[in-house]
C-alpha cells in the first residue's frame, strides 16, 4: 500500500508535471472509485480548469483547482499517477484520465481498484470527515508523544492508527520500530522520555531517507530493515534471522535481539 513516502513522491511528481495546464477532457472509467461527488459533476468541475498546487496529508493527495476546490486522490493498495504525452491508456487499470490542452495525459492507475477519487472544498474537510490525526511527517516531537502515549495497543498498531498519526502503514511502521530498537509488541504507555525521543528521531530519519530514495525500499541503505524484509531475511545489525508475527492482522518483520520492550534500556537509532 502506498504510504506517506510514496504519496509524497507522487505529490512532487504531479507538482512538476500536472500544474498550470488547462484540462480539456476528463474520462472516468471506473465510476465506483469516485466518492462524495457524481461523475458528471466531477467532469464539469474539472473541465477548463487548471491544477495550481498540491498538498498531502498522510496517505491522501490533494490537487488545488484554480477557481476553488481540490481533487482528492487516495491510492489504495496499488495506485499511482502517470503524466505523459506518450501515455498508452488502453490498460484496464487506468480509472481516471485527464487530457490537458497541450496533449499530455494525467492517468490514475490502480490495478486492485481499492483507491478513491473525489472533490473537496478544502483538505481540512476530508481530514475532519475521516478523523485523521496529524501528518506523521510534519508532527512535532511534543504532539507526537501526546498522540501516542495514551494508546494501549501494541507499538506497531499504535503507529498505524490513522486517527492517531496519518501516513504510517505496515511497511514503514516496521522500519521506524527497527531503527528505534523498539519491539512491535511493546506498549508505548511504558515508554521513557529517551525512548520517545529515539522513536521520533527514527521516524523523521526514515521519512527523509525514504523520500530521497523515491520511496523504493530496495534503494534504501543496507543498514535499513526494508531491503531485508522478506521471507528468509536477516537482521542487518546482528545478521540473525528476522522473525515474522501478526500484529493487528498485518505481517510484521522484526529482530527479537535488537528490538526490545520499551521498559528496558533504549536501543540506539
List the helices and strands and how they pair.
Elements: H1 4-17, E1 23-28, H2 39-46, E2 51-57, E3 60-65, E4 70-74, E5 80-84, E6 94-100, E7 105-109, E8 116-120, H3 123-129, H4 141-148, H5 155-160, H6 170-180, H7 193-212, E9 243-247, E10 250-254
Antiparallel strand pairs: 1-6, 2-3, 3-4, 4-8, 5-7, 6-7, 9-10
Annotation keywords:
269 residues, alpha+beta, 4-stranded antiparallel beta sheet, 7 helices, 28% helix, 21% strand, elongated, disordered C terminus
Provide structural commentary:
The chain is α+β, with helices and mostly antiparallel strands and 269 residues long. The chain contains seven helices and ten strands. The strands form three sheets. It has a four-stranded antiparallel β-sheet with strand order 1-6-7-5, with helices on one face. β2 and β3 form a beta hairpin. α6 packs across α7 (193-212). The longest helix has 20 residues, at 193-212. It is elongated. The chain starts with a helix and ends in a 15-residue tail after the last strand. Mean pLDDT is 94; it is low at 264-269.
Helices and strands: which structural class?
alpha+beta
Report, as a whole number of angstroms, the end-to-end distance: 26 Å
Strand content: 15-25%
**Fraction of residues in helices?**
25-40%
Total DSSP helices: 7
**Helix and strand pattern:** HEHEEEEEEEHHHHHEE
Mean pLDDT: 94
Radius of gyration over C-alpha positions, nearest whole angstrom: 20 Å
Largest sheet report: 4 strands, antiparallel
- The coarse silhouette is elongated
Instruction: Tell me the number of strands.
Output: 10
> What spatial order of strands do you see in the largest sheet?
1-6-7-5
* Low-pLDDT ranges: 264-269
